[in-house]
Design brief:
Blueprint: E1 13-19, H1 23-35, E2 43-48, H2 52-64, E3 71-75, H3 92-99, E4 106-111, E5 114-116, H4 121-130, E6 134-146, E7 155-160, H5 176-183, E8 196-198, H6 199-212, H7 216-230, E9 232-244, H8 260-278, H9 282-315, H10 320-323, H11 325-331, H12 345-359
Length: about 350
Amino acid sequence: MNREFETGSLEDITLLFFTKNRVEFMLRALDYYNTYEEAHAITIIISDASDEHLHLNLLNKINKKNYKFPLNLIHHQEKNTIDEKLEPYTYLRRLNDSMRMVKTKYILMGADDDFYYFDWMRPAMNILEIDDQMGAVYGHALKFTLDSFLPRGVIQGFEIGPEDNPPFRDYDDDDVAVRLETISQDIWASQSWYSLQKTSVLNHILTLANKHGIDGNLFEYLVSFVHSVVYKSTKVDKIFIARQVDFIQRQPPLSYKRNTEEIKSFIAACAEVLRIDHGFSYDESELLALKAFSKNIEYSKIADRKEPLRKLKLLFPWLEKFANPMSRKIARQRFSSHSRNLPSIKDAEQETLQIIPFIKQ
């Protein structure tokens, strides 16, 4: 298969990982990329928020490896939140530090349990090169489940999700009003950054987030908004990533009760880019931003009502199979074919072969 790009090369891409206290997950991902010659040109940056001893463990293990790609490891020490007893759900400080090291034209962001494929990168780069207004390109997500949420285990199944994730739809219409109407129809996907995006676009988002203090869940939504409304985003009809499914919701969802003021700042940030980048008036931009995010606000209120159950499941993970009995049944199906415009099941089967050596016990 011809791996050469029509425009650009893999040297134009930085892969930025986020990890915390998951040394073996991170090493699994690095071993995967090291296996493929195509990845050796990619610069990898790891933003590690691990406890000190686990960070040193990761550093020592990386130093003993002979990885063939440029690799930078940054340690971001963070304290646990008081109420959640979880890692703080923050990106801004880590991204501000990490982006100073990014010298490439394009960037991919991912978690330590993600595997990006390579075949989709050439058409994705071509789209970004040709269209100045295109900010991000993604593809179909392949999800896999192990018998427990560990780096290796017994494979339970693979699935191509029914949603066009991220961010559910193409947002490639040239008319910003059409893109605004489209994004207003559903709850937003919060992982639009799992895409090949222009580094300049991410820096634009960071500037906006720093000005308005946008972080955590709302930062993910800001990425989706800027990608899909301020710029355009689209999907290549290829599997672009494999993601490990964890049925336990370890990070708190957006809370309307706790984040009322932050949501106001978020709406203000979205309204600002509509005014500056697309010339909407002050009042019109505020109304459009609020309308676009209205379903997410309603969902955050529902999440507040479910908060006690979520915390209970964190303490007693075995409750998940009773709280959501269909989840594991669906996950055990090898593939789901109910999405529109999916790659063939045969193609999907071939993609699984690339990651099985890294996840099978």
